[in-house]
């Protein structure tokens, strides 16, 4: 089964193509959602405009009725016969009293019948201790109503007064004497059932309801859909200023209201939002179908993209990964005739061409390495051979046969190592032993004026394979170009360092006269062909190491802690062609 390569998923073509498709389809879905909300807002606004117009007309009509009642009420309060009864009742005979009371009763009945909103009309006459009613006729004096309406401040309560959740109109007739109760009070009581009928008439839907409220008098009247809890919730929403987000028992309502300053009252209609959205039900169904179709299209598109684009691309990526790991004998077997078939064909041809070029390049590099090694050997042998003969000659003159034997043995081992042509890579222990032997030979020449500190090679590094003749030429350069010129106190130090991914061999001397500019010049020439014998030898070693082990390996020059030149041989244990490895014991 194919797996995604170890890269960030957001960088894959598959994810980008799916995201691109989503970037195309999501705006369409969002546009549909916007159109739905826009349609709902328009429906709500159209409903509100129609309802507000109806509510305005309703309150204006109710105000006209109230004004008519007030006119009739004031006219009744000024009636001569009513005032006569209130003032001269004790001076009237029984016939006059009966005739006056009958007249007033007829006036009350006529006033009640003049408006459908009037439930009853009362006249509370204190002086005769009677209460006259259009519905109940003559009755005992209702002192509780008389005292209530007598104490009402119309400037605070407004035109309409709340009495036991009934709307009342009240007019008092003063006695003309200071601190004396009024002669009588004319009270008009509005019919709540008739008001409910009028509220039902403005309900546009079966689920809707209407309220007639007065925050000034705490009056509230609603249709059948208006429960006490709903009226209380409505008042609470008004107090909190949250009328347009009115919600009760988990149901949100669309509400429209209008307030009449003349009446000091407000009328409101409410409708569940689901009823407002009902005409959009089909739109919602189609929107969900469109969303489901879009989701299905995303799945189909994603599958098709993976099958026809991502999966073939992963085959190519996996082949490239194997090629990067050094496997060049892979071929992509396929029968495709599309663009990926062309890429697979070219990939196979590229690998064949690459193998051919690598074979040619490797053969050329190998020949160059061996040629450079031969050149390096030819440079070392004559120079060192002359000095060796001079040492033997001096020892022979001295007659020191034991040292001649020792020196001859070391010299034989030395030339046996540098002249053998069996293999180009040896154990680091052998390369180090050869270099140490070279320093021992040089000690016989410069033992009095050159001190050598040659550290022991760590055991973990002994079995590592390295190119032959990479350390001894560096030591020879130190003698030839620095230490031989020292009259006394010459120092040479060879040390070893090891890290997890790299080994370092360090050669330091205390040669005098080496400036920073000279070190920088040596660094630049290190990567150039030709030049002095000194740089040419180190350049050969540097190129051989870099050629085999890649970037990060080679020779690195710096100033030594001994104030001379520091040459550091770095060989990375990973990367390159991997020729640094432990020899099987």
From TrEMBL:
Membrane topology classification: Multi-pass membrane protein
Cross-referenced CDD domains: HAMP
Primary localization: membrane
Enzyme class: transferase
Residues that span the membrane, as ranges: 13-36, 283-304
Any one Pfam family match given in the protein's UniProt record, by short name: HAMP
GO molecular function: protein histidine kinase activity
Keyword match Kinase: yes
Domain HAMP: 307-359
Subcellular location: Cell membrane
Keyword Phosphoprotein: yes
Assigned EC number: 2.7.13.3
Entry keyword set: Cell membrane, Kinase, Membrane, Phosphoprotein, Transferase, Transmembrane, Transmembrane helix
InterPro entries named in the record: Bact_2-comp_sensor_kinase (IPR050640), HAMP_dom (IPR003660), HATPase_C_sf (IPR036890), HATPase_dom (IPR003594), Sig_transdc_His_kin_internal (IPR010559)
Source superkingdom: Bacteria
Protein name in the entry: Two-component system sensor histidine kinase YesM
Species this chain originates from: Paenibacillus silagei
Lineage: Bacteria, Bacillati, Bacillota, Bacilli, Bacillales
């Amino acid at each position: 089964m194919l797996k995604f390569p170890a890269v960030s998923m957001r960088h894959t073509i598959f994810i980008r193509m799916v995201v691109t498709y989503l970037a195309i389809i999501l705006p369409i879905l969002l546009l549909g959602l916007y159109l739905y909300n826009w349609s709902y807002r328009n429906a709500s606004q159209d409903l509100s405009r129609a309802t507000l117009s109806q509510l305005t007309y309703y309150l204006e009509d109710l105000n006209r009725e109230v004004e008519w009642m007030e006119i009739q009420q004031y006219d009744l309060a000024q009636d001569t016969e009513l005032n006569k009864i209130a003032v001269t009742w004790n001076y009237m005979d029984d016939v006059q009293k009966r005739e006056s009371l009958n007249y007033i009763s007829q006036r009350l009945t006529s006033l009640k019948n003049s408006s459908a909103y009037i439930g009853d009309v009362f006249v509370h006459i204190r002086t005769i201790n009677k209460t006259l009613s259009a519905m109940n006729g003559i009755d005992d004096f209702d002192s509780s109503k008389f005292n209530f309406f007598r104490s009402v401040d119309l400037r605070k309560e407004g035109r309409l007064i709340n009495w036991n959740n009934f709307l009342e109109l009240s007019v008092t007739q003063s006695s003309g004497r200071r601190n004396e109760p009024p002669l009588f009070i004319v009270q008009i009581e509005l019919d709540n059932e008739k008001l409910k009928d009028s509220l039902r008439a403005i309900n546009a839907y079966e689920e809707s309801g209407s309220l007639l409220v007065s925050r000034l008098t705490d009056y509230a009247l609603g249709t059948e859909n208006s429960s006490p809890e709903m009226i209380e919730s409505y008042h609470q929403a008004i107090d909190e200023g949250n009328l347009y987000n009115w919600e009760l028992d988990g149901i949100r309502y669309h509400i429209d209201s209008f307030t009449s300053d003349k009446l000091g009252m407000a009328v409101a209609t409410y409708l569940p939002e689901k009823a407002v959205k009902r005409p959009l039900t089909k739109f919602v169904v189609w929107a969900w179908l469109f969303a489901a179709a879009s989701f299905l299209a995303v799945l189909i598109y994603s599958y098709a993209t993976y099958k026809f684009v991502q999966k073939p691309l992963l085959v190519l990526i996996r082949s490239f990964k194997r090629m990067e790991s050094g496997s060049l004998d892979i071929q992509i077997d396929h029968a495709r005739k599309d663009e990926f078939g062309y890429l697979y064909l070219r990939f196979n041809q590229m690998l064949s061409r690459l193998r051919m070029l690598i074979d040619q390049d490797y053969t050329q590099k190998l020949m160059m390495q061996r040629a450079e090694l031969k050149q390096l050997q030819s440079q070392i042998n004559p120079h060192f051979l002359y000095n060796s003969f001079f040492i033997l000659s001096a020892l022979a003159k001295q007659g020191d046969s034991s040292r001649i034997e020792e020196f001859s043995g070391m010299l034989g081992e030395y030339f046996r190592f540098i002249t053998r042509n069996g293999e180009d890579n040896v154990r680091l222990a052998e390369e180090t032993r050869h270099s140490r032997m070279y320093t021992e030979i040089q000690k016989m020449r410069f033992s009095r004026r050159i001190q050598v500190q040659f550290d022991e090679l760590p055991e973990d590094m002994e079995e590592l394979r390295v190119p032959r003749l990479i350390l001894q030429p560096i030591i020879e350069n130190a003698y030839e170009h620095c230490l031989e010129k020292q009259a006394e106190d010459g120092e040479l130090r060879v040390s070893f360092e090891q890290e997890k991914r790299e080994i370092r061999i360090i050669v330091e001397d205390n040669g005098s006269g080496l400036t920073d500019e000279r070190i920088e010049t040596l660094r630049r020439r290190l990567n150039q062909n030709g030049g002095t014998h000194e740089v040419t030898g180190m350049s050969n070693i540097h190129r051989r190491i870099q050629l085999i082990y890649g970037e990060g390996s080679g020779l690195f020059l710096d100033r030594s802690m001994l104030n001379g030149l520091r040459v550091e041989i770095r060989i990375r244990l990973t990367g390159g062609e991997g020729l640094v490895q432990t020899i099987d014991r």
